[in-house]
Amino acid sequence: VQLQAFGGGLVQAGGFLRLPCAASALLFDDYSIAWYRQAPGKEREFVGSINRSGVRRNYADFVEGRFTFSRDNGKNMVYLQMNSLKPEDSAVYYCAADRSTTYVARNRNDYGFWGQGTQVTVSS
């Protein structure tokens, strides 16, 4: 499966962004999808994930209710809605997928397919 995250940009603190992730897969609803982010000089970290049907989600603690995941299997799309953005949310955001893992997986090695990232910059 090929993935492409987009929709990043510059936003002020307290603002919001919606990041779509487009996937090319014949059986898209067979894949668990996760979002990761990587800031300069830091390790890539888990943001959250969504299960195959889109009913169950798993969020990193730092999300604190600010981010929401959704997916539209009919359109092969996943969305990351980010609200109340903070400067520390600035990073390159990536979507990842795998058929063999469940949505509770947080280790980046559990996801075999990765898209190109999209830059999010939050100004203070």
Give the topology, please.
Layout: E1 2-5, E2 9-12, E3 17-24, E4 32-38, E5 45-50, E6 57-59, E7 67-72, E8 77-82, E9 91-98, E10 113-114, E11 118-123
Q: Quote the average pLDDT.
A: 94
- What would you call the quaternary organization? single chain
Name the beta content range: over 45%
Query: Number of helix segments?
Result: 0
Structural class: mainly beta
Number of strands: 11
Shape: globular
> Order of SSEs, N→C?
EEEEEEEEEEE
Major sheet characteristics? 7 strands, mixed
Quote the distance from N terminus to C terminus: 37 Å
- Low-pLDDT runs: none
Helical proportion, percent range: under 10%
Rg value:
13 Å
Describe what this molecule looks like in 3D:
There is one protein chain. A hairpin with a 6-residue loop joins strand 5 (about 45-50) and strand 6. This protein has strands spanning about 1-5, 10, 15-25, 30-40, 45-50, 55-60, 65-70, 75-80, 90-100, 115, 120-124. The strands form two sheets. Strands 2, 4, 5, 6, 9, 10 and 11 form a seven-stranded mixed sheet that branches. Strands 1-3-8-7 form a four-stranded antiparallel sheet, with no helix packed on it. The protein is built from no helices and eleven strands. The radius of gyration is 13 Å and the shape is globular. By secondary structure, it is mainly beta. About 0% of the residues lie in helices and about 50% in strands. The chain starts with a strand and ends with a strand.
